Amino acid sequence: MMIANDETYHFPQTNHLTFEPGARSSWHSHGGMVLLITGGKGFYQEEGKPAQILRPGDVVDIEPGVKHWHGAAPDSWFSQIVIFDSHYVPEEGAAPLEEPVTDEQYNNLETQEYTGRRVKPDDMLMFQRAEQAAAFDTFSGLAYVSSLIGADNAAGAPDLHYVVFEPGVINNWHTHEGGQILIATDGIGYHQMEGEPVQVLYPGEVALCPPGVKHWHGGSADASFGHIAVNTNPELAGLTWFDRITEEEYAALPAEKDVESDD
Prior knowledge:
By secondary structure, this protein is mainly beta. The chain has helices at about 105, 245-250, 260; strands at about 15-20, 35-40, 40-45, 50-55, 60, 70, 80-85, 110-115, 135, 140-150, 160-165, 175, 180-185, 190-195, 200, 205-210, 215-220, 225-230, 240. The chain contains 3 helices and 19 strands.
């Protein structure tokens, strides 16, 4: 589990799932779900439709109760972040029994590339970066901010934003009235809450900042850093900015995670 659905952030349960080549789920349905594809090549198929070929950066919004399956291509591992409504209860008789995707079905799929793809084939980042960099007074340099999926998504999550910091760029200390969750996706970055040690973030790692707690985050000096940012409890939208760590403090940050202290 990456993120638990709790009483602090009220964010849907979030897991990271990896299929071995050829592995797949059964046909099934459940509450609303968002798939964020993070690696490899796989399939997503709804009943009565062609199987969609999924690749890194694809974002799939699955409505509650839709019968479907997903899994890896025969020659590729396939990984995804899964955000879902863990409290969903189907109407009596509405949820179909799970049925296996047979070898015959799997080996004779009608396939097409995912129709909702927004990632450019030559993009070296996990998700599609904004076309233009933005300069903010509260950032030390340029950053790219784009939307992965809006708040009307099937999983009931707040807006998910994709933020890419150019090398060496960080933001100021700030607080979110409703808290914030960060999921690192690209490069190496930092997150620090007031009075706490600096966290060095690698792709796949999660940083949680509770409501009202002062924190900052940003990239390391040598490479771009990307993360998914979620402002939790969106009805509490207050955002307060403060000063920034000094250049000397930034220069003294660790270049990589201290393995011993992380045990």
